[in-house]
Design a protein that fits this description.
Blueprint (H helix, E strand, L loop, with lengths): L7 E7 L4 H11 L7 E6 L5 H14 L2 E5 L3 H13 L4 E3 L2 H11 L9 H21 L14 E5 L5 H9 L5 E5 L18 E5 L2 H14 L11 H18 L3 E3 L5 H21 L1
Helix pairs in contact: 2-3, 5-6, 6-9, 7-8
Length: 278
């Protein structure tokens, strides 16, 4: 105990980093005067000897032990040792885990650190989504070199929806529109072909899509953007660029975003496997 102040020491014990138990302790402690509660953290406890030392120290310090031990053997041992030493102990996850096990009729995995891994997956997804928004539609070519995959194609080939879908799979995706009047960014030609995916579409379907797009915007459906001549010119230009890049090309005609995304994911996995073999 720090000084001679009255209060309660709480040992926060975990077989992982201990964030869950620490959060619960802080939430409860916030309901009391802050000077009344002191915490000491013991993360990554993986053996009985460590538990013996913690219980002995808690007994000497009149400490309360709050723990999240999901490995069944360590959990049982902590409860037994604390009871034998007359040390108060709180199993943060035990009651809820036991109730869920009863309801689901499925035993828990007993693996420490799963919450942290879920958090890491979540933040990777958020980062990927932010990346896709930042580098959508060729806004900043500098992002191309940092992307896991770069989508290229003419307007209305589902580049943005695909970018967002793949971002939810934790891939950092940038996309670049191919327009005859605009030179593709230099960074595109610095990438290995396996990190670029070309998207193409039938000229008839693209004409229909663009015509409907113009109508929805209240614009003239006969505008150059949707004429067959313009579309054929754009598709020919895009094919030429894709051939120069030697990248895989996917025809998105009549394909849902999910279907195209799965093809891209398979291609990325295949590319990684080939790379690993070399």
């Amino acid at each position: 105990m720090q000084g001679n102040q009255p209060g309660q020491i709480i040992y926060v014990v975990s077989d992982s980093i201990g964030e869950t138990a620490e959060f619960v302790v802080r939430a409860v402690a916030s309901q009391f005067d802050s000077h009344l509660i002191y915490t000491e953290k013991y993360p990554y406890i993986e053996d009985r000897e460590s538990i013996d030392e913690i219980v002995e120290s808690a007994k000497e310090s009149n400490a309360l032990i709050v723990f999240t031990l999901v490995v069944p053997d360590l959990k049982s041992y902590m409860i037994e040792r604390a009871a034998a030493a007359d040390v108060p102990v709180v199993d943060v996850m035990g009651p809820l885990m036991g109730t869920l096990q009863q309801i689901l009729q499925v035993p828990p995995s007993g693996k420490p650190g799963l919450v942290r891994r879920l958090d890491e997956e979540y933040f990777r997804k958020v980062d990927a989504i932010e990346f896709a928004v930042k580098y959508d539609d060729g806004r900043d070519p500098r992002g191309l070199l940092r992307a896991d995959v770069v989508l290229i194609g003419v307007s209305r080939t589902s580049k943005t929806p695909l970018s967002m879908y793949l971002a939810n799979k934790r891939l950092k995706v940038a996309n670049v529109p191919l327009v005859p009047e605009v030179e593709p960014p230099e960074e595109l030609f610095q990438l290995p072909p396996g990190r670029i995916i070309g998207l193409t579409i039938s000229s008839r379907q693209l004409t229909d899509i663009r015509t409907e797009r113009l109508k929805s915007l209240g614009l003239d459906s006969q505008a150059n953007y949707a004429t067959p001549e313009r579309i054929e010119a754009e598709l020919a230009y895009a094919r030429n660029i894709m051939e120069k890049l030697q990248c895989p090309v996917i025809d998105v005609s009549n394909k849902a975003v999910e279907e195209t995304a799965n093809i891209i994911l398979e291609q990325i996995r295949g590319s990684r496997v080939r790379k690993d073999k070399h």
